[in-house]
Amino acid sequence: MRQQLPEAFVNGMRTLLGEQFDAFMASYDAPRLYGLRSNSLKIDPEQWRQQSPFHLRPIPWCETGSYYDGDDRPGKHPYYHAGLYYIQEPSAMAPVELLNVQPGHRVLDLCAAPGGKSTQIAAKLQGKGVLVTNDNAGERTKALAKNIELAGVRNAVVLNEEPASLAPVFAGWFDRILVDAPCSGEGMFRKDESMIASWERHSVERCAGMQRDIVKHASQMLAPGGILVYSTCTFSPAENEVQIADLLAGDPRLERVSIQLAPGFVEGRLEWGQADTNGIEGRSTQESSESLGANEAQVTAGDKQASGETASADGRIAESGMARLWPHLLDGEGHFVAVVRRKPLPVDGQAESDAAAQQAGSREEVLAASEPPIGRGKRDRMERRDEGRAARSGDRSSRGSNGGKGAAAGKHANGGKAGGGAAAAVAVDPAEAWRSFADEHLIGTDEWTGRLVAFGSRVYWQPEGLPSLDGLRVVRAGWYLGDAGRHRFEPSQALALGLRRSEMKRSWSGSADDAAIMRFLKGETLHLATEELTVIGDDTAHKGYTLICVDNYPIGWGKYASGMLKNELPAGWRWV
Ligand SMILES: C[S@@+](CC[C@H](N)C(=O)[O-])C[C@H]1O[C@@H](n2cnc3c(N)ncnc32)[C@H](O)[C@@H]1O
């Protein structure tokens, strides 16, 4: 049944869409669509298709994306708790596909909470390179941090900042930037009726002003040759084509990048960038330039055929660098995506054609200036920081110098144990505590790239090469490994979820339908015979931390002793 749509919205769409208006309006009567994206950090797409208990059909523009049936309950399955997939609206999977992220890139997701697109980016990085994921809403960064941890991401830093504060720190630093901008959410009306009221409160004009400011600062952080993707889930040209026209007109170092349109996508309209139905003037647009080479979004045809002159056949190129996903032309709620590039620097008087090669050069300089990764025998190189001195935490109230209440960088968003307070309160050396835990329980940590950093008693594994984060509000300074505490190292839930089972000396795995798995997820103690545990190496003590897995995918820690497995799942991670 069609929702009561705002009159101004309907009138605007009639003007924009002309003869397609009726088809667009009819899409509001179509059933809601459900999507999930498998997490290739943990499971490859083919394996997932074989193992999935849900009724899936592929999403044409995203290799790891699938529609699932309305009767499926992917949020209520042990695989969800293992981070094997992320539940995501199908059209929302398009922007990251067009960002063309490669392993090793430095990537910024500027408006990231709750983390759908960040987890998609992290999967494309495959643990190599850096993901800086940020949102200016403190509360929302808690969900963001939790989703990053659930997905098992090891190379992300979570920040809670305004783009203007990030721009000087990361000027010209990123190979890829995603601006999934806050918007009036017109594409969400079918999925979430509360967006209709919200549209009436937050006008298109207000959103457009915020977007202009955000994307301007974002572009300052783009390295020469780097790619910026701007996306919204709204239809208004003022929030889409006009933003891109403004951005390009304001910075001659930026240019459009032609993109390949997946079936069902249509090209954004350059003329909508001049002026929109709401009367917001754009600026002059620029001519398009080179094609984006490796767009992974080349896929088989979608169910609905795109129609009209802008949607002819597969292999279509949008020279404007802008794509529209309309709900009446494909199976998704709708999105806008634009791809722009910062021109490569001239080399010997010529334009550098291989931006990646140039990036590698500048990266070496930064890496040389940074600390080497810590490995066995390099323990004393760990960077240890007093929380109050080194970084602002996830809580604005904690900017003082004592690092006291609420000051732990990365104060848990998830109900986990709070940080240990200021460095002075830490009885053990966090690096030593971590190392002795790793020696006793883990396999292969010497091979990890990155470095240890500590904030108070909390220990993180941070990706290499980052500039100093001093003065920024840091929610997670890297992969949160655990807390050195007063007596011994307590591993975090994030560590459990980021490990592979083969990296842990002592583990236990049950199948998804094993009642013990459900009991564990609900926080109960398990009773297991010693022979049921899998042990690599000597385990004469038969007690201590044990990685609990579902079908070999970690879901949390238990502490084993004398046939009993004490449940270490933090309250915020339990099945409710
Ligand atoms: C469309 S949502 C992002 C969804 C997210 N990319 C995902 O895929 O899960 C837009 C986000 O922008 C954030 N935001 C709003 N203004 C911002 C600003 N000035 N700087 C950074 N983030 C901002 C909002 O808090 C919101 O979480």
UniProtKB/TrEMBL annotation:
PROSITE patterns on file: NOL1_NOP2_SUN, SAM_MT_RSMB_NOP
CDD domains reported for this sequence: AdoMet_MTases, RsmF_methylt_CTD1
SUPFAM superfamilies for this protein: S-adenosyl-L-methionine-dependent methyltransferases
Keywords linked to the UniProt accession: Cytoplasm, Methyltransferase, RNA-binding, S-adenosyl-L-methionine, Transferase
Skewed-composition ranges (Polar residues): 283-292
Keyword Signal belongs to the record: no
UniProt-recorded name of the protein: RsmB/NOP family class I SAM-dependent RNA methyltransferase
Species annotation: Paenibacillus terricola
The organism's taxonomic lineage, starting at the top: Bacteria, Bacillati, Bacillota, Bacilli, Bacillales
